[in-house]
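Supplementary Text 2. Reproducibility record for the structural model of the 134-residue chain.

All settings were left at their defaults, and a single model was retained for analysis rather than an ensemble. We include the record here because the model underlies the residue-level annotations in Supplementary Table 4.
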Amino acid sequence: MKVIFARNNRSIISKVIRAYTWSNWSHVGIIDGEYVIEAIGGRGVAKTELEAFKLRYDENCIRHIAGDVEKARALIGKDFDQRGLWGGLLHMRVQDPNKWFCSELVAYAADAFYDEFAHKVSPENIFWLKQLNK
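Retained model, structure tokens:
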């Protein structure tokens, strides 16, 4: 599975996410052909053109990890988990199992994490996974 990590150095939200999670990345999605499956605040889980995704960010990095893009495809159209994202930042378990934020979506599709703990995974945790040789 191809995963794209991103950050926007001009965005306050990106800076806060990176600082809190001790991550170089504030957003993550799964590349599906010429698209990225991602969870976006205000839109939910959606498919975005890869080039449009890259234009939103100052920097990005692509890595190959073990996972199943079909699990992510099945979530397209689901709502964004705003409450779960803030709950994670505040160390409170308030996520909605039917809503998703970006790293939770990728962790759910990755083979390395138990599904029930996907809400605790940050972009940095995903970045640490062993990269597959492609």
